[in-house]
Write a structure and sequence with these properties.
Layout lengths: L1 H23 L6 E5 L6 H17 L3 E5 L6 H8 L7 E6 L1 H9 L11 E17 L7 H10 L5 E4 L5 H13 L4 E4 L3 H10 L4 E5 H10 L2 E6 L25 E9 L4 H14 L3 H9 L3 E2 L4 H21 L6
Parallel strand pairs: 1-2, 1-3, 5-6, 5-7
Antiparallel strand pairs: 3-9, 4-7, 4-8, 4-9, 4-10
Helix pairs in contact: 2-9, 4-11, 6-11
InterPro entries: BUG (IPR005064), Bug_dom1 (IPR042100)
Keywords: Signal
Family: Belongs to the UPF0065 (bug) family.
Length: 323
């Protein structure tokens, strides 16, 4: 019996050593980074920035493959089912690995169990903007107005189930106000209606609203992050304006299929974290209205679990229809 245990331990040790050696040279061929959204969006742009850095630092080409559809489900599912060898990755975000789990009855993948999180690359706030002629000039005035006029305020978002939409739903739940959601096909049409006064307020990713805010054509009432954003320091956060426990960060991170060797996960984490400290990368992120996060795989995993819990509670509290 003792002899069998010794042989078993030796066999396990040899197996682990072989596995570690096999992945020490990773990557030995091109790697595919799936973007589950169309080209040109923030998720796609960040994926391309990271892929260029990894191609340079790791010596193999990191190929971007756009697989859009079903709110990010098609491309994300494809990676969940891919071979867990580090050669197929996905650029996920707050929707694919947070909100979707709360909104869809039958999501074709499990955001937590089916993935090996690697690193959150960057985050950007959403912003609540108002028509400059609206009857409220600040976030505090808006809350007072909404409470005095339940159901009167219409808020626009870029899509049903996107982080701007859910930012508004979270505000309803946390502040105890009643607003009517008006979904649009993208930020452009939504902002046009806020500018024209068809709706009083809108929730948007900060980068696409920044120009209107800077020109004064739209008034920024608040950002959704817990701290003021460096490029818009005069815009308050909702939390500091009295909405307790309010926080929404539109985050973007890289994940591998569950079962991917830890050596590969750690190597990618280190390489990406290093790239995010480079001056040109920092400037590119700032140009997108984003900032680097650089967390560990364990922290990323915890973050996904927290996001799923948070948005599931918001959907239940606001009685949103599941899709």
């Amino acid at each position: 019996m003792l002899k069998k245990r010794i042989l078993s331990a030796l066999s396990l040790g040899i197996s682990l050593a072989i596995t570690s050696t096999a992945y020490a040279a990773y990557p030995e061929r091109p790697v595919t980074l799936v973007v589950p959204y169309p080209p040109g969006g923030t998720t796609d742009l960040l994926a391309r920035l990271v892929s260029m850095k990894l191609t340079k630092s790791l010596g193999q080409t990191f190929i971007i493959e756009n697989k859009p559809g079903a709110g990010g489900q098609i491309g994300t599912q494809a990676v969940a089912k891919a071979k867990p060898d580090g050669y197929t990755l996905v650029m996920g975000n707050i929707n694919s690995h947070g909100i979707n789990a709360a909104l869809y009855k039958e999501l074709p993948y499990r955001p937590v169990e089916d993935f090996a999180p690697i690193i959150i690359v960057a985050e950007t706030p959403n912003v609540m903007v108002a028509n400059k002629n609206a009857p409220f000039k600040s976030f505090d005035e808006f809350i007072a107005y909404a409470k005095q006029n339940p159901g009167v305020v219409s808020f626009g978002s870029t899509s049903i189930g996107g982080s701007p939409h859910m930012s508004g739903e979270l505000l309803k739940a946390k502040a105890g106000i009643d607003m009517v959601h008006v979904p649009y096909q993208g930020g452009g049409p939504m902002l046009n209606d806020v500018l024209g006064g068809q709706i009083q307020v809108g929730f948007d990713n900060l980068p696409s609203s920044a120009g209107h805010i800077e020109s004064g054509s739209l008034r920024a009432l608040a950002v959704t992050t817990t701290q003021r954003w460096p490029t818009f320091k005069d815009v308050p956060t909702m939390a500091e304006s009295g909405v307790a426990d309010y926080e929404v960060s539109a985050w973007f991170g890289i994940l591998a299929p569950a079962g991917t060797p830890d050596d590969v996960v750690q190597k990618l984490n280190r390489s990406i974290a290093s790239a995010l400290t480079e001056e040109d990368m920092i400037k590119r992120l700032e140009g997108l209205g984003a900032r680097a996060v650089k967390n560990t795989p364990e922290q990323f995993s915890d973050h996904i679990r927290a996001e799923v819990r948070k948005w599931t509670e918001v959907v239940k509290t606001n009685k949103l229809p599941m899709r």
